[in-house]
Structures
1.
Amino acid sequence: MAELDDSAAVAVVGMAIRVPGAGRDLDRFWRHVHDGVDAVSVFTPGQLVGWGVPKDLVERSGFVPARAVLTDADRFDHRLFSYSPSDSALMDPQQRILLECAWAALEHAGHPPVAADGNRVGVYVGTGLNVYLLDNVWPNERAVEAAGGLGVIIGSDKDFAATRIAYKLNLQGPALTVQTACSTSLVAVHQATQALLTYDADVALAGAATVAPPTRRGHLHEPGGIFSADGRCRAFDAAADGTVPGDGAGVVVLKRLTDALRDGDTVHAVIRGSAVNNDGARKAGFTAPGPTGQAAVIAAALEVADVDPDTVGLVETHGTGTALGDPIEVAALRQVFDSARPDRAPCALGAVKSVVGHLDTAAGVVGMIKTVLALTHRTIPPIAHLRTPNPAIRLDGSVFELPTTARPWAPVDGVRRAGVSAFGIGGTNAHVVLEEAPPIAARPRRHVPQLVLVSAKTAAVAQESLDRVTAFAAGTAPGDLADLAYTLRTGRAELPWRAAVLTGVTDGVARLRKVDATARARGVALHLTGAGAVTGNRPNYDADPVYRRTVDEGVALLRGHDLDDSVRERGDRLLACVGLTRSLRSRGVTPRALAGDGVGAVAAAVVAGVMSLADALALLRDTDDPGVRLHPAALPLLIDGRPDDSAFWRAAALRPPTSTPPPDVPDPVLWIEVGTSVTPHLDADQPPLPANRHARLLATVGALWQLGLTDAWDPVHDTGRRRLPAPTYPFAATRHYLDAPGADPTTERRH
């Protein structure tokens, strides 16, 4: 197999969905796809009338009371995004759902959902028609009058779908709303891919949402029309008579493949190429499909990808299940994929609409996410409801097959590849060529305690997040826990309600608490004593590069000197004290002041930059004046005596260690004792300390983080780390919705 140019490839590093039947759960969505589970709901006349659907419409001949719906589209986490309840109720639910999907997709990618300044994260999204504005908002004169004209526009207009996400998540790359009807989200993927390859963005979000209010549940079937007669989408089946409208959303996070591999992202699949075109006038009518344009866009995407069609094993089709559309789509595919190669493996067709209905603007990206999951699971999924292939679809002599059950996906020429199509009414066509993710080399990993951080906007959500993360960590392979901890520390927003979890430790308890503004104002001081048992720091040496570097430097400086036991012990205490203090600082602990006593005072001088580690060890080692070079302190140093006199430091080094509280630490600052281990003195609610000294250090850092007293960690702790998919934010389900006139809101809550 010829090597492809990875510099022109784009990685799918994160995904989020809201789909009928599976909600936000990617695993559940895949199970539904794998098993051919139908997510379309059928409603009673009483439900429909209760939602505000006109009674005469419900009773009309040909009315089909079916739609694939989201059960919680009326709910939104307004607190997380700092929206008022009234503004939330006014806003198009499609844009609210997109905002939550963007947050979740970035978290799934292991990237913080609220980006730091200077980022180049782009947003390319679209929405369906804002029927909520027509059916629910405009008739509510009181809400419209209170919001004012501009307020209604800002909350309702499609133009703000992308810029709203960029504003709320501080994303500073291009933010463009894309609108091409049913192909919107796949066109958005193409545009995002192009932005990455032209360096307009370094990370890009792409997707769409289509959600209609309950007033639009159900449709009228017309023979030969687009909508099904019984509420089932039977793509490629002889009984196919139309599609079923559905509500849903999807967002993917994309990066250049070379960047994703460099940065340790999880690559779920690779975009090898994509293309967009329009049918023009080469079709029967404006709404009719155009086989020439469809074939051309697929061929163009394969050419851009430099991929042989014979190596594609699955094509996720537009697959609307209409008597006209399905045969035309297969005819267009055959123009590109029919092969004279005698050993050509069959290429399966897929149709996600048979599971979740036609999600309109979101259809393409949801089909793409389905295909990424198929690549990940190395499985060809079935087409739901397929019993007898449509005889109008000519498959004899073609490379295509219509799978009715899930089966293992065998690679073609050593690789698994797929195509995804989306064709919009009006003729804008899009096709994306996907490839399975490259293999990741196994790495040796130490099994050591890890600090897992969890935060949320409210206590209830923080507790739910803590429960999810704790359960997830319990099921994570020990060798992956460091990556999990890294992902949750660097790939999440830091919110006020927090918990810190130590993995692999039974004597540490995770406690939920809120960032303490008073504690943050007080700050923290370190009291370096050097007290404690000299032995027992092997866990810190094995697990902590900062501590290990300090000890190795000190041992090298002492090597070759004839030391008595007392000098060696003081040297060990000094190295432990300096190493632990440096380790705390490398984990974002910035002390207001350093205090010290005995050997700890000398260690404080080293940490504050008054003297080098070499000079400090010389003080301990030599009986004569070693000629220590003293410098101004870079940190406030609370030491009684003459810090500018080397004799003072020599005397301090000879005093026995003590663990009494520092007398000169400014009140009411919090303080941490650093001896040969770390002991926090924070408040009455501080967590119990584990016996393992490395876990004890991490528990102290976690407690300070919960109080809001730590900054970013030194990147040295993240060398070789990878971002893993981990539990994303459990959005608070609060109802913010303007019901249609005459509707009974309890009807929706009972659904």
2.
Amino acid sequence: MAASPPVAPRPHPLAVAARFVMLALVALLTLITTRDPDRLWWIVALLFLSIPGVVAPRHRILAPAARFAEVVVVGLAASDVAGAASAVGSLGPGVGAEVILPYLAVPLTVAALQRRSREGAVLLGAAAGTLLASGAVNMTASGPQITQIGYMAVCAQWLILGGLGTFAADTLRRWMLVRETKPQPYAEATRLLTQLRSVARQLPGATLDPGGIAEHLLEELRAVAPADRAAVLTASGGGRLVVLAQSAMERVDWETALDADSAIADAWASQQPATASRSQSRSHRGAEVSALVVPLVAGVRSIGLVVVEANTSLAYPAPVVAKVTAVTGPAALRLEAALLFDEVRSLATNEERQRLAREIHDGVAQELVMVGYGIDNALATLPEDAKETAEELRTLRGEVTRVITELRLSLFELRSEVDRHGGLAGAIAEYARTVGSAAGLRVHYTLDESTARLPAATEAELLRIAQEAITNARKHAGASNLWVTCEVDPPYARIEVTDDGQGMADKRPDGRYGLAIMNERAERIRGRLEIRPRNPSGTTVAVVLGASPRRDSVRDSGNAPEGE
């Protein structure tokens, strides 16, 4: 198929209007100053020469030639009008040139906006030459017009203004070009994420997992510094730190407040290694202790801390500190990349969940409500003898009500988040209480949460696993009781959901799909999913993160005290 001919560019309506407004203004000023209608033939000439700029503003030959002719005509007209104005005495000698010279801005500005900087310089030179030549030729009573101070001052003034206007128009054009070519936010995000994916595939182990990087860092530190306890902490909301990974034989309650009187707070504020002769754990009761806190700094920003402690005095002299900082320096950049990736993934996930919740609420949920109202209206208008039809409609109405309830619970699940101040245990308990109340389940709780917090992304994944386990028990188990255990002692956590339903005999595909999702989430945070039968009936689903540092374990969930 033959290609269609290129479409000639249309002049901008504002540019055309500005050109003709300028012509009208110059014509009016010429008539007022010269009091001679014959002098308007200059305006007619400019009007004729402006036609190519309106009809073919981008023509390679015609448009530049017309602009050059406009500049020459303006120079000749300025000299002629200046002489006529001086003759009638309306203006001083030569000053009348300023009546026509403002029109110079039109061809100069058009050339600048069309990226013709060389043409603009040529036009300025042509205007200056024409003004000088016409001023030398035109004679007045006192001699050549070029000898009049007023004429030369007006010409110089408008030539300077024309040059400044050309520069300003060119600068505006460049600024507009930058604004037009600036990548859109989503295009820029796509480009950056594509680069991130390529770089991630080249990383050792192809991992961007903050917990995995933190554990590898602790392994590296064991070879260069003595440590009975060690941890990697990173920043979280509320001016506190969270434990990404730790190495210890027993429970360690690390100081996570950044406003406390501790080496941790000092190292964070100064971005320099800090040593102390007392433990940075609030639970340690040992006698001799050496502590070393090294900040993880990427660029100028602190992203975390490494804490190592030994049960001896003076365990970290300057050479040891130097070895530790040599290891933590490169690790800081790796950890920052992993944390940023984790944050981007969490933001994208949360936004998608909120979008789905809005679509479900505003779409299918509202439509189902209207269907329910329609069934109610049909029941109200049925004749009394249509008992069979009425019974079928009541059954259908009950099914619609059930689906609406399911949707409302799904909306609650999609919108549920771990509150920064409430913690993971509170979010799980709230969800279990809401679902249990809707399904008629008796829910029993065992909640044991440390004041320290897990990373936000890890808490979010654990909440989703707990929600899926609770939902499976409600939908498929046919249970009467639900036991929920939440034990959090960063970096360790255990979430357990037990029901007294029919157990693993349920082979429904959607239930199995939920188990697969839970397993994928557990693997993502380096946890392990455990599914086992409960005696005498029911199922236990548990997710365990890390190894428990506690000597005493949480009581079995089947013996937990009852909640609501």
3.
Amino acid sequence: MGEVLYIILAGLVGLGAGAALAGVLIKNKNQKLEEEAKEKVKSILREAEISAESLKKDKILEAKEKYLKIKADFDEEMSHKKNIIITNENKVKQREQQVSKELEQVKRKEAELDSKKENLNAQLHSVQVKKEELDRITNQRIADLEKIAALTREEAREQLIQMLTEEANTKASSQIKDILDEAKLTATKQAKKIVLDTIQRTATEHAIENCVSVFNIESDDIKGKIIGREGRNIRALEAATGVEIVVDDTPEAIIISGFDPVRREIAKLSLHRLVQDGRIHPARIEEVVAKTEKNIEEEIVEIGERTCIDLGVHGLHPELIRMVGRMRFRSSYGQNLLQHSREVAKLSATMAAEMGLNAKLAKRAGLLHDIGKVWHEEQELPHAILGMELAKRYKENPEVCNAIGAHHDEIEMTSMISPIVQASDAISGSRPGARREIMDSYIKRLKELEELALSFDGVNKCFAMQAGRELRVLVDADNVDDQTAGKLSFDISQKIEKEMQYPGQIKITVIREMRAVNYAR
């Protein structure tokens, strides 16, 4: 037991000595590290001080260099400005010297002018004295002449003026007469030359419109399809288009007769489409005719646009272009209205160019001079006045409007273009083969016949057939019954007898067709 305690105590003593020794070693090591750290700090501080000193010296040198550069630039600029100031001062001194010399010259010139002025005053005084002497002598002579002639000065002057005036009037009248005679002769020759040159330079067609169109077919077998069972197809086509279809022995041809070119064109195009399609029956005929009428309206616009492009007339209102297209399907005394208007436009342009006037304006007026004939609404105005009003409505040039209204002398001409258009219209209409007077009166009578029948209530369409010997009236089946249809036929015949003059007799046929339409849905 005692030995064990001794061993334990010896161990404890050994541990305490080791710990003490370790503590001493650690302390010595810490002191050494601390001294090394201090030495490093001192070394870093010394290096920092050296670096700062070097940086400071560099900055100071850099600042000195900048200062020296700025000072050198400043000195150079100041030297430049000083030189400029010296140069300007020299220029000012030179200018002052020059001004001084000019002032001396001005003073010398003023002295010379004063001397000349004195000389002129002396000369003027001398002239004044001589003038007074001359006036005195002149007055003395006038007084002597008045005593000799027994006339005062004023009376003599009036007699002299009267004599000179009468002599001048006599000579002037003679010269004016000679000039007028020469001008009339020259103007007549020049006008004839312009008209002849214009006619020679204008190529025109001489064909006259007729009332018949020919529809060519490939074989006579198609005629049977066009006629239909018991002629129902022909009747349907005539009722829809208002023309007369003549199917006779003429080989490979069907005659379309009607005074209205638009109706004939619609019938011809409709026949062409029906023959190509092969389905020819009343319902199909009505459908094709309706489509053709719509296409004709589009073609009218296209014709108007093409005509304006061909003639070089630009900027027309769309409605005026449509009227120009309608002229293609109208005639004036058998002369196609569009062809006539194109011809007048070309003649007017050529004449205006020969006379040094505005050829484009004259061509425009010539093209539009007859637009009053194709207005779709009935008017009591003459076609020239109506055309002028339409041109004003669509903002045409005032000279063009005056030329349209004055080409038949309904209004006064206010422009040089107006007589040119009038002369061109006369040239176009009066040339051989251009017109046929009876045709226009014939078409007018047929139009009046149709308008008379259309004035009755319940009438939908009305067509003059057989050159005006038959009038076919289509009525609304809902508003006109069979009994009323018979009475309507009688009333129309009585009104025609009272209001119209015509050769022979006119057959009035009232057609009432009852249709019942429903839809299966």
